[in-house]
Amino acid sequence: MLLSTAYFPPVSWFAALASEFTLSASEDGVSLFPVHIEACEHYVKQTWRNRCTILSANGPLSLSFPVVHDGEDSIAGVRVDYSVPWVAKTEKAVESAYDSSPFFEYYRDGIFGILESRPQTLWELNLSLIRYFVERMGLPVRLVPTEEFTAPGACPGADHRYDITPKRPDTILASLGLEKPYYQVFASKFGFTPNLSIMDLLFNMGPESILYIKNL
Length: 216
Hints:
By secondary structure, the protein is an alpha/beta fold. The protein has one domain (2-213). It is built from eight helices and nine strands. Strands 1-4-9 form a three-stranded parallel β-sheet, covered by helices on one side. The chain has a two-stranded antiparallel sheet with strand order 2-3. A hairpin with a 2-residue loop joins strand 5 (51-56) and strand 6 (59-64). Helix 2 (86-98) packs antiparallel against helix 3 and helix 3 packs antiparallel against helix 4. The radius of gyration is 17 Å and the shape is globular. It starts with a strand and ends with a helix.
């Protein structure tokens, strides 16, 4: 399994990740399944690498953060730009959207704490957030950064680096039989909105999020 890095990834990103493991216990606890995250690609604009979508009172809302290249093409070297107050704006938007969700108070401080710690690079920020959701959802995976770039089509396992994109709907949820609604705060206003940021699933479903993406 090979995935691109992502900022508050969509539900389909985590569904793809979860498709790689089975919930099996060992004497040492839960076995960890390795999932590779691309660390050697060039930065790609207008992707989930620095943006996400949440559901606000006015409908789907895109959130993003600015980056600085400084001549650095590798995704692992792209810096986050904190010269504009995007952290405060993001926290305000997330709180406005999910303050009344069932589990917002359980996860708010952990998520906002990562943003406020101001990781230097896009890679560090995204990986910290992904690890947070992996741990809170109880996903038995080990995130492994790649050490070299593998060309598209040459990956021996499933390669989802370029098919999970905001530019077009992906088919991952459909292929895994996960096109099903869960509780959303504004569903009565907009109907169910699929494949939002994993924040939407966790804030609304809490510990049951893993049951959703594993279809249990």
